[in-house]
Structure formats: C-alpha cells, structure tokens
C-alpha cells in the first residue's frame, strides 16, 4: 500500500474506502422530500429564462411543476421530449452557466432553483423503471448511418428511430457513449450510468450499434453515402493538441483525456497509478477534471497551470472552486517552457506571462514545480473530417447540421458552432435528425 | 393512454379542463390562446344585457392571500361582468366557436330578473353557435346590489323561474352557476333542477375581505381610501367548494344532476378529486390567472398519467367514485382505531408535532433530551394534527390497529365489526339493537 507521499507515479495511494468516497456522486440524488421542497421554489415563469438558456430548450417550469404535482414520470417525458440524454445532462451540464444562471431566483436571492438535480430526480424515476416513454412510428424503410456514438450521435439516432427510420451507428471504439463513457468525470457519472443510458435509449428499437468500426479505416464516407439515405457525422474531437516544448516526450507526460479514459474504464481505481506531484496544463473542463481526479486518486500536490488569468479560463468559476476545494492549486498566467527529468518527468519549468498589445508574451520570470506527471489539456482537435468543407478547425455546418456534401449532416464537437458541451451535442443531433427526417420524407 | 375526452350534457371537449367565466375568457384574443394552449373549453366572461356595458373600477380590483414564498392561495376580486359591448362579445364568440369546433364554448349570462330581458338575449346567444349557456347567479359584489348575480342565486324561487325561461327560449344545454354565499347549497341546486337546468356549476366566488391596510384603515383592494367586500377564489376555497359539490352529489333530490366543479382547481389532482365527487368536468380561473394558460399541460399530463396508473380508460370510469364514501358523521365507523406513527428515519426533529399535540391536542407525543419524538399510544386519539403540521411528507403516518389488538389508550379490544354513533351506548337516541 502506497500513500500520497510515495515518490514518483504509483498506484494504491488511497485505500478502497477513501476512493469510493472520493468518487461518489458529486451531487447526491435528491430524495423525494428534497425534490418536493426544491420544486416548490419554482415560479413557473412565463417564457422562462431558464428554458431560453437551455441549449435543448427543455420546458423547465413545466417539468418542475410536474414534479411538484407528484408526476415525475410526466416530468421526465417533458425533459426527454427535447433532450433524450436528459439523464446525463442532469449530471454533467454546467448549470451554473446555463439554466441555473438564468433562473430568476439566482437574480433574486443568489440561489437558483436546483434545476439540474430536479432533472435528475425526474429522469432517474423513469430510467430506473426501464421505461422508454416513446414508441417508434411506423417504419419508413429509410436507412440512416450515424458515425460516432457520443451524445450527438445517440440523440440523432434516437430521434430518427422514433420517427420510424432504421439507424446504424458506427463507432471506432469498442463501447458506445463517446465522452459520456470515456471523458466525463467519474464523480459526475457514477454507477456505469453512461452505458445504462445507451442501453435504455436503444430500447426505442430501430437502432443498431456497430462498435470497432472507424470511419476512414474500413469505413469510407463514399460507401456510407452509397448505402444509406443519409449520414450523420458525430465523431467528436479525437485528437489532442501537443505542448510543443522540450521534454514533452518524457515518461510521465500524457494526454489528460487518456488519463481520464483509463480512469473511467478502470475496474479498480486503486490499481490506477498517479503521480505524487501532478501538473495539468490547460484551463478547460478537461484540465479541471484531470486535476481533481488526480487529487481524488491520492496525488499529494496537484497544480493546474493556465497561461492566462482566471477570467479567461473556460472552466466555470464553479468548476474552479470545485478544483480548489478538492485541494488543487490553480496557477494563473504561467506557460510551460520545459519538462525536466532524466527520461522521466521530474519537474516542470513555467514562465509567467502577460498580455501585451493583444498577444500573450512571457515576462522572463520562471518557476520550477516538482512534477512526476504532467497532463496536457490544451484542447482537442478534429481527426476525421470525411473530406468535408471546414470552418475554422471543425466541419462546417448550417443551422440544421447540413455539411458541404448533400446527404451528409454533422453535429456535436466535430461540427462548427455551439459550445463543446454534452447538451449542445444533444441539441445538434436532435435538430439534424429533424432536418434529415424532413429531407427524407420530402414528397413521401 | 387514457382518454380524457368528456361529454358533458352532450357537449364534447378533448379534456375536462374548462376555463371559468372570468378575465381569462374575457375576449377572443385570450380564448384563442387558451385553446392553443390546450384548454378543453371555456365559459365566456359573463355577458350583460344590451346597452351601455357596466363599468369597472379603475383602481386595484384584486386582493390576495399568500402562502409561504408568496404563493397565491386566494384572490378576491371586485370585478364586474364583462365591461365590453354585447355585440362585440357575440361576434367574437361566433368566430371562435367556428374556428374551434372541437372545444366547448359556453356563454355566461347575467341579465335582470325579468322574462323580457332573457327573451331578448337568448336568441342572440343561440345565434353564435356556442354549445350552451351558464347562468351567473353567483357574483357577490356589484351586480347583486342591482338585483342580479348572487341576489338571484340566494333565492331558489328566482333560480327556478329564470332557469325555466332559459329552457323555454334557448335550445341548448343550460348550466346554472351557483353562489356559495348561502347556507344550504342543496336548495338552489334543487331549484335549478326543478326549473329544468341541465347541470349546475359551482362555486362562484365567496364574499370576502382579504386584508385591511393598517395605515389607511381601508380594506384591500382599496380604491381611493375605500374598499368593499369582493369574491374569494383560488386554492383556499377548494375545500368549501368540494363540500358543496358533495352535498349536491349525495342529496337524493339532486343526485345525478350533472355538475361542473369550480373552485381552486390548480393541479391535475384537484381536478381528479372534483370528478370523483361527481363532477363531469372542472372549471379553472385563479390558477390560470396566477400561472398563465400553460398550466393546463400539467393538468392533462398529470390526469392521464394517474388514470393510466389506476387503469381508468375514461373520465367516466372514476366519475363520482368518492360519492358513496362521503357520508354523514354519524355513520363513521367508531370501531376503527388508529395511532400516529413517526418514521424516525424521516424525522428532522423540528418538534412541530410535539408543540401541536402537547399544547392543543392530547399530550400524546414524547420528546427526549436528544430531540427524538415518539408517539405515546396510551394517549394518542389519532386526531391527525401531527401529520398535518409535520413539514416532511409521509414522515408521520396513521396506522390502523388490527381487530383483536388492544387499544392501549382505552384498554379495549379493537372490534372487527362496523359500529357507528346511531347505535352507540352514549347516544341518548340510539336504537338498541334488537
Ligand atoms: C474530459 C472531458 C470532460 C468533459 N466534461 C464535460 C462536462 O462535465 N459537461 C459537459 O457538458 N461537457 C463536458 N465535456 C464535453 C463533452 O463531453 C463533449 O462536448 C461531448 O461529448 C461531445 O459529444 P459528441 O457526440 O460530439 O462527441 P464525443 O462524445 O466525443 O463522441 C464522439 C464519438 O465518435 C467516435 N469516433 C471518433 N472518430 C471516429 C471515427 N473516425 N469513426 C467512428 N467513430 C469515431 C468516438 O469513439 C466517440 O464515441 C467534457 C469533455 C472532456 C474531454
Ligand atoms: C376576476 C374574476 C372575475 C370573475 N368574473 C366572473 C364572471 O364574470 N362570471 C362568473 O360566472 N364568474 C366569475 N368569476 C368567478 C370564477 O368564474 C370562478 O367561479 C371562481 O373564481 C372560482 O374558481 P377558481 O378558484 O378557479 O378561481 C370571476 C372570478 C374572478 C377571479
Ligand atoms: S427561471 Fe427559475 S423560477 Fe423561473 S421557471 Fe425557471 S427554474 Fe423556475
Ligand atoms: S397586471 Fe397588467 S393591467 Fe394589471 S395592474 Fe399589472 S400591468 Fe396593470
Ligand atoms: S413534526 Fe415531523 S419532522 Fe418535526 S419532529 Fe415531528 S415527526 Fe419529526
């Protein structure tokens, strides 16, 4: 048995009890009593600002009223009508920047209605019973291919299946779910929820998932366009930006997403090695998640090193506070210069930065931090573009998700527009499905 | 999925949720949006006789009673019937009905208690194509002073007479809306029935003063320093309305008379309760005025979910189901014995049950040093007060003692047989069982 102070990268820094406590639900589910009290606070606002702030436009006052009137099942239906991954979104949405930030009670009292937790209360009620509140329309005989089984692909597939189309989902990995399964922090999606959600979602029927099939390898976009009446690309951002500094190739330097993926797939968290001194480079949700989970695994010192100031950080203030309260140190205005060590990382050299004439420059002042493990979390990149026109570094799409190629739609992280969030991916998948449906049924 | 369609007096509507005659149904603009939002029917804001319309006050017309967190529990109003021109209303009604043939459109009417007045307006209303009329005998303010509204509703003979005129001069269903500002609701209901009414609807608003402004010494709502009693409605009046509905549903004379239930319907559950009390549908005003037309969606989803869970396929399935279980006190089973039971896992140790029971009930709850609250079965009379005041739902429950066990309070064995007050030995007029 090791401890947080064991040098280098080591497994078993904490005992099983500490680990299971650390990785329990970040927000425990509401009990019926808590839900009743929380729901009671909603004002049933007209043209509710919370709904406007929800990328999937869930009728929030309605579902909360349905909880308040003892019909959480009806509430779940209201949620799933707009967002079939409402269960996952209830767990992972940065509500502090979306619905709950917009809630009028946030303005009134600085204490919004707990929309996210109420959403979980409702969706859990239905999913735990294994009830799929939708049925498929008469089969249309139309076939649609979805590439990528993350939230965008799943949402698109469900909507299409519901409308009567036959959907085949291809995914490069051996498991569906995308970042729900491999990326989201473990304490946000406990109890194998991502896999259960995929299974539940597929009970609508008409969806076939083929794993281990990557577009670009065995699967060609031309073949898909030839075999299916429509194709939806939702391949996410599979690549990771490199640090491009000396020492980036040393042992102990890794992608934050790979670390998180290992963590999410680990049967036994204790077996997962983590550094005593961990430094995470980046300022987004991935950086925060890698840092917090390193700490929860038992790392002694964890630092997030971000090159700009706090306000520029894409992780919300809430996420920053979560990191700080987990014991992660947040270091602002520093950029990595070099990773030192003899084949294995030992320390990282950082330089302070400032913004001059609109660009970020080093001040020349440098610090060294001990670092057995360094995680890169400076953004993900598109790896599969299907030969489609790009906008910036993503596949260019219209509002309805149409790409430059007729018959091919795209949505989620891989497509232009929208924030890189689970809920945005769901919205884009749903909207593309509606456009695909309209297109396929034209003249039918 | 449950079928919510209702057939009330032959008037079909996709669900039993109608908007009551009031501001929500005051004009075409509102009613169209109400139908778009999903309401099954409307009773148009009460029309008056031809001529210059009534005028409303130009200051506040509503007062309010709040629950916690400013939740609206009751509203009182001093609004009159429609203050818009009769013909404008009639034209609008005709247009709306033509565009929404599947929704119920009922016209509420209040004209002076003279045959000529009714004879004049009824053909005009018939002409609109509306599905029926509702006679407003209920408005407690403003109109009563002019010999209309509740002034008529409080005199059964007038109700009977006017209803008869309406049946004579109008071909479609006539609903008589009753005022609750009366001692025995069965009297006006029976009078309506004798006059040939197809149904009664109740309740209209209750005489009320919601509050007094302690600075100006004027009742609210205050118009330039003076106030008047208004009509009370909203969740707070539901218990009164339900009791009145039950009286009509139970009385042998009026039993079976179709009833449209009104008063405080705010959620699907309220509606379901009214229907079990014998109502063929419900009418809603305050809930729409508080939350907007959209709430009907919760009513629809909630009622249909509940019906599905209970296996009811139609409204008819449970209509009146609670009527046979509504009885007089003297027929309640005095051999039924229950005890309060506190679930310690749910208890948050607030002590409200203790204060209530210790100070005002039967000293049947014990409080320990560490704030554990337990029921003393020897003292508990099962009054339910603790259940009612406990902030945690279902934390305290009433558990029936099984027949054969001994009630520690009385030392008597609980009997399985039903026995009520009429045969109780303490009852001086009890009939000894032969
Ligand atoms: C560490 C981390 C934490 C996050 N935390 C949150 C959070 O808390 N809340 C939040 O809202 N968002 C969070 N996000 C963002 C969120 O996960 C993404 O925005 C969302 O998953 C995007 O969905 P998607 O369907 O577009 O792509 P993905 O979820 O990335 O799914 C893409 C799928 O496509 C498959 N695929 C890729 N290439 C191919 C190919 N060539 N052929 C076939 N299949 C392929 C992949 O295997 C994957 O299954 C986080 C992201 C990361 C990386
Ligand atoms: C402002 C206001 C105006 C009303 N006007 C009328 C009316 O014109 N005719 C009528 O029959 N009832 C009228 N009512 C009574 C309602 O139709 C209804 O009977 C009553 O409000 C009880 O229902 P509720 O508790 O759902 O509000 C009015 C109620 C309110 C609040
Ligand atoms: S903004 Fe807040 S109070 Fe208003 S409807 Fe939304 S959750 Fe309820
Ligand atoms: S609710 Fe509308 S009409 Fe009434 S007082 Fe307020 S602003 Fe004026
Ligand atoms: S009122 Fe309810 S919660 Fe409070 S002490 Fe009594 S049982 Fe416990």
Q: How much β-strand is present in the residues of chain A?
A: 15-25%
**Which CATH class of the largest domain in chain A?**
Alpha Beta
Shape of chain B: globular
**How would you classify the helix and strand content of chain B by structural class?**
alpha/beta
Your description of this structure?
The complex is a heterodimer of chains A (444) and B (434). Chain A contains 17 helices and 19 strands. Chain A is an alpha/beta fold. Chain A folds into three domains: 9-24 and 240-377, 3-Layer(bba) Sandwich (FAD/NAD(P)-binding domain); 32-128, Orthogonal Bundle (Fumarate Reductase Iron-sulfur Protein, Chain B, domain 2), CATH 1.10.1060; 143-238 and 382-440, FAD/NAD(P)-binding domain (3-Layer(bba) Sandwich), CATH 3.50.50.60. In chain A, strand 9 (277-282), helix 15 (285-297) and strand 10 (301-305) form a beta-alpha-beta unit. In chain A, helix 4 crosses helix 9, helix 14 (256-265) crosses helix 15 and helix 15 runs parallel beside helix 16 (317-325). In chain A, 50% of the residues are buried. In chain B, strand 5 and strand 6 (72-77) form a beta hairpin. Chain B is built from twelve helices and 20 strands. The model of chain B has no long low-confidence stretch (mean pLDDT 95). In chain B, 44% of the residues are buried. An eight-stranded parallel beta barrel of chain B has the order 3-4-7-8-9-10-15-16, surrounded by seven helices. The interface between A and B is medium-sized, with 18 and 17 residues. Flavin-adenine dinucleotide binds next to helix 10, strand 3, helix 14, helix 15 and helix 17 of chain A.
């Amino acid at each position: 048995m090791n401890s947080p102070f064991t040098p280098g990268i080591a497994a078993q820094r904490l005992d099983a009890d500490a680990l299971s406590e650390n990785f329990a639900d970040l927000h425990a589910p509401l009990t019926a009593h808590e839900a009743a009290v929380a729901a009671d606070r909603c004002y049933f606002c007209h043209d509710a600002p919370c709904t406007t702030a929800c990328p999937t436009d869930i009728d929030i006052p309605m579902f909360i009223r349905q909880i308040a009137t003892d019909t959480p099942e009806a509430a779940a239906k209201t949620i799933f009508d707009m967002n079939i991954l409402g269960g996952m979104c209830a767990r992972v949405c940065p509500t502090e920047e979306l619905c709950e930030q917009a809630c009028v009670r946030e303005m009134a009292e600085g204490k919004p209605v707990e929309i996210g937790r109420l959403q979980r209360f409702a969706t859990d009620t239905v999913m735990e019973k294994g009830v799929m509140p939708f049925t498929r329309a008469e089969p249309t005989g139309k076939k649609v291919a979805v590439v990528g089984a993350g939230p965008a692909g799943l949402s698109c597939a469900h909507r299409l299946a519901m409308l009567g189309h036959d959907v085949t989902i291809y995914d490069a990995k051996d498991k569906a779910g995308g970042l729900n399964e491999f990326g989201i922090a473990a304490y946000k999606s406990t109890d194998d929820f991502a896999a259960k959600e995929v299974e539940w979602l597929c009970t609508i029927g008409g969806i076939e998932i083929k794993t281990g099939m990557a577009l670009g390898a065995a699967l060609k976009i031309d073949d898909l366009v030839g075999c299916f009446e429509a194709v939806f690309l939702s391949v996410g951002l599979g690549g990771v930006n490199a640090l491009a500094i000396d020492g980036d190739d040393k042992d102990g330097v890794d992608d934050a997403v790979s670390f998180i993926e290992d963590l999410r797939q680990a049967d036994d968290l204790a077996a997962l090695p983590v550094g005593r001194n961990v430094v995470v480079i980046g300022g987004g949700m991935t950086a925060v998640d890698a840092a917090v989970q390193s700490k929860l695994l038992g790392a002694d010192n964890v630092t997030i090193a971000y090159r700009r100031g706090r306000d520029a950080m894409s992780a919300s203030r809430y996420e920053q506070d979560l990191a700080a309260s987990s014991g992660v140190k947040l270091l602002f205005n520093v950029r990595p210069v070099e990773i030192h060590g003899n084949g294995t990382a030992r320390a990282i050299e950082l330089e302070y930065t400032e913004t001059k004439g609109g660009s970020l420059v080093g001040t020349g002042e440098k610090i060294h931090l001990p670092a057995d493990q360094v995680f890169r979390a400076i953004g993900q990149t598109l790896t599969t573009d299907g030969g489609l026109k790009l906008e910036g570094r993503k596949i260019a799409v219209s509002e309805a998700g149409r790409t430059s190629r007729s018959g091919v739609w795209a949505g989620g992280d891989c497509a232009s527009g929208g924030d890189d969030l689970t809920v945005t991916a769901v919205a884009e998948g749903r909207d593309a499905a509606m456009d695909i449906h309209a297109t396929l049924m034209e003249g039918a | 999925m449950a079928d919510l369609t209702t057939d009330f007096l032959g008037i079909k509507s996709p669900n039993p949720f109608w908007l009551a005659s009031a501001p929500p149904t005051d004009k075409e603009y509102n009613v169209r949006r109400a139908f778009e939002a999903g309401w099954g029917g409307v009773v148009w804001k009460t029309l008056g006789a031809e001529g210059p319309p009534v005028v409303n006050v130009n200051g506040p017309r509503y007062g309010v009673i709040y629950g916690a967190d400013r939740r609206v529990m009751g509203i009182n109003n001093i609004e009159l019937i429609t203050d818009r021109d009769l013909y404008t209303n009639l034209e609008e009604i005709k247009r709306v009905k033509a565009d929404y043939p599947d929704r119920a459109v009922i016209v509420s009417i209040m004209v002076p208690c003279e045959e000529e007045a009714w004879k004049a307006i009824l053909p005009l209303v018939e002409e609109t194509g509306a599905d029926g009329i509702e006679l407003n005998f209920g408005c407690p303010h403003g109109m009563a002073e002019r010999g209309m509204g509740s002034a008529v509703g409080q005199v059964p003979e007038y109700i009977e007479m006017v209803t008869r005129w309406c049946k004579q001069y109008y071909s479609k269903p006539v609903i008589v809306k009753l005022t609750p500002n009366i001692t025995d609701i069965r009297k006006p209901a029976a009078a309506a029935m004798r006059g040939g009414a197809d149904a009664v609807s109740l309740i209209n608003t209750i005489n009320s003063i919601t509050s007094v402004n302690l600075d100006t010494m004027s009742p609210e709502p205050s118009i330039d320093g003076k106030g008047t009693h208004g009509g009370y409605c909203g969740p707070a009046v539901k218990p009164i309305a339900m009791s009145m509905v039950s009286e009509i549903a139970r009385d042998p004379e009026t039993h079976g008379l179709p009833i449209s239930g009104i008063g405080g319907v705010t959620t699907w559950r309220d509606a379901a309760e009214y229907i079990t009390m014998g109502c063929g549908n419900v009418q809603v005003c305050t809930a729409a005025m508080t939350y907007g037309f959209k709430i009907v969606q919760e009513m629809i989803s909630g009622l249909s979910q509940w019906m599905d869970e209970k296996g009811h396929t139609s409204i008819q399935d449970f209509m009146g189901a609670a009527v046979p279980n509504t009885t007089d006190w003297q027929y309640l089973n005095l051999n039924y014995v229950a005890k309060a039971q506190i679930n310690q896992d749910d208890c948050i140790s607030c002590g409200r049950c203790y204060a209530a029971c210790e100070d005002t009930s039967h000293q049947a709850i014990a409080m320990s040093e560490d704030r554990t609250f337990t029921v003393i079965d020897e003292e508990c009379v099962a009054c339910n007060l603790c259940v009612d005041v406990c902030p945690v739902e279902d934390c305290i429950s009433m558990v029936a003692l099984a027949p054969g066990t001994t009630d520690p309070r009385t030392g008597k064995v609980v009997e399985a047989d039903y026995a009520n007050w009429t045969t109780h030995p303490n009852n001086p007029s009890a009939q000894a069982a032969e």
